[in-house]
């Protein structure tokens, strides 16, 4: 008799994890959601929801109570307002504990969500960037150190424990009506910063396309690192125009200080994102397509318009 499919999903307080849970529920999975943040709203389908730090005792109780067949670790902390030691505890130590517990309690598949930000935006970047390219971001932005450690740790764990196949996903800028990350918040603003003298090519992945990628990878068996991006790219200024916002031209030499002092946004633009407004970081999605048969369904223009 086949084992009942149980998906344990971290980051369940966020829009992406909730959408992924709904998609997996439709595929016949029981859903167990965990987040270090309070889970304010129930899901629209039966589920078990818990608040627990990823590196504390309570999360082991959750694994013991609901042994998962599939673990989707979508709970990476990208919020730079969190103290650096708390981000390290959740992103690095917590991620390791989630993977170790998945192995201990019999998970058959794991998916770890990383980010394309770890490649860094740089004037010498290839176009497109493949999964084996060096990670440039860490040298310039210590704010991304824990994200790089999470990614490297997941890859190392993947090769040490091949009896539990792991896939690491590095999505580009995630956008959509249910996404509250920094790039979506900035693009929704009435005035969006553009660096004077710069207009880099920019990529996006709509929330629905990322959810479909997560579901496809979760139900696959291949291990490895996979970039996730929609098809096509646009210059940054054209992206701002497509959303329906107006440009806020800023001299790049004073951008970081000016944005902090002006307090123009609900959420401060993370320092490492300023480079993404100057230099390209365009990733290839060929490995994901070839391995899992995944295809993007939402055009870059429709994805940007959905922010409104």
Which keywords apply here?
17% strand; alpha/beta; seven-stranded parallel beta sheet; globular; 13 strands; 308 residues; single chain; two-stranded parallel sheet; 38% helix
Report on this model:
- With 308 residues, the protein is α/β, with parallel strands linked by helices.
- It has 12 helices and 13 strands.
- The strands form 4 sheets. It has a 7-stranded parallel beta sheet, with helices on both faces. A two-stranded parallel ribbon has the order 7-10.
- It is globular.
- The chain starts with 5 loop residues before the first strand and ends with a helix.
Structure at a glance:
The protein is α/β, with parallel strands linked by helices and 308 residues long.
Strand content: 15-25%
Overall SS class: alpha/beta
Oligomeric status? single chain
User: What best-fitting shape do the alpha-carbon axes yield?
Assistant: globular
- E-strand count: 13
Average pLDDT works out at 91
Blueprint (SSEs and pairs):
Blueprint: E1 6-10, H1 15-26, E2 30-35, E3 48-51, H2 57-65, E4 70-73, H3 84-104, E5 109-113, H4 137-140, H5 145-160, E6 166-171, E7 174-175, H6 182-188, E8 191-195, E9 201-202, E10 205-206, H7 207-218, E11 224-228, E12 234-235, H8 236-243, E13 246-250, H9 255-262, H10 271-276, H11 286-292, H12 300-305
Parallel strand pairs: 1-2, 1-4, 2-3, 4-5, 5-6, 6-11, 7-10, 8-13
Antiparallel strand pairs: 9-12
């Amino acid at each position: 008799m086949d084992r009942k499919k149980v998906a344990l999903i971290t980051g369940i307080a966020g829009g992406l994890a909730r959408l992924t849970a709904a998609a997996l529920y439709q595929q016949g999975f029981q859903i167990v959601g965990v987040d270090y943040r309070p889970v304010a709203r129930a899901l629209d389908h039966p589920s078990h929801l818990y608040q627990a730090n990823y590196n504390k005792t309570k999360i082991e109780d959750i694994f013991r109570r609901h042994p998962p067949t599939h673990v989707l670790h979508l709970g990476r902390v990208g919020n730079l307002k969190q103290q650096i030691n708390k981000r390290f505890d959740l992103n690095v130590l917590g991620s390791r504990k989630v993977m170790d517990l998945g192995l201990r309690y019999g998970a058959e598949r794991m998916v770890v969500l990383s980010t394309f930000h770890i490649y860094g935006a740089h004037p010498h970047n290839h176009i497109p960037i493949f999964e084996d390219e060096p990670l440039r971001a860490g040298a310039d932005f210590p704010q991304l150190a824990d994200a790089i450690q999470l990614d490297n740790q997941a890859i190392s764990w993947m090769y040490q424990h091949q009896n539990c196949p792991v896939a690491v996903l590095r999505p580009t800028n995630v956008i959509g009506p249910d996404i509250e990350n920094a790039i979506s918040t900035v693009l929704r603003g009435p005035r969006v910063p553009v660096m004077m003298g710069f207009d880099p090519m920019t990529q996006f992945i709509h929330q629905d396309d990322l959810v479909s990628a997560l579901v496809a990878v979760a139900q696959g068996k291949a291990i490895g690192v996979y970039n996730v991006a929609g098809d096509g790219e646009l210059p940054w200024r054209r992206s701002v125009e497509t959303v329906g916002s107006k440009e806020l031209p800023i001299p790049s030499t004073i951008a970081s200080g000016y944005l902090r002092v002006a307090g123009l946004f609900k959420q401060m633009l993370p320092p490492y994102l300023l480079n993404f407004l100057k230099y390209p970081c365009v990733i290839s999605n060929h490995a994901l397509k070839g391995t899992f048969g995944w295809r993007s369904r939402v055009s870059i223009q429709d994805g940007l318009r959905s922010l409104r």
